[in-house]
Specification:
The chain is an alpha+beta fold and about 160 residues long. Helices cover about 35% and strands about 25% of the residues. Strands 1, 2, 3, 4, 5 and 6 form a 6-stranded antiparallel sheet that branches. The chain starts with a strand and ends with a helix. About 15% of the residues are buried. The protein binds zinc ion. The site of zinc ion (ZN) has 9 residues, from loops.
Length: about 160
Amino acid sequence: MRTQRQVVDYSLQKRAVLRDVHNGRVGTLEVCDASPYLKNAARFHGESTDERCPVCRQDNLTLVHYIYGDELKQSAGQARKLAELPVLAMTLREFQVFVVEVCRSCAWNHLAQQYVLGRDALTADELDQVEAVASAAAGRHRETGLSSQRREGRR
Ligand SMILES: [Zn+2]
């Protein structure tokens, strides 16, 4: 998403963990410990990827997006489908997204990325577009601004 900001990427940490696993310094049981909640979130809200699990290579990784922020109230900490995030980003000023990768075969899981979304991240032009889309969706001002101005002038 174009409006992502304060993006933190955890691929370096992930590589370090995987190195330890492949060296045998860390057991797979220690890193393949996805909770039943995380596995369920992956199943119902996860985004499947083309990337093979780096541990078991049996299954592709699934990305789970968790949302956090004061404005979310009781929804804070919930997993959401990726497609729901742009809608939230239009309505909320700011919220955090934590992306966790999970293997549904071996339960490998790792924080992949975190970032901030929300209206505060939009430029003035993008806000105009969002509002145009929102008002069109609401059935108002279907015409362009130009034609409605012309109509006003005729009155
Ligand atoms: Zn796996």
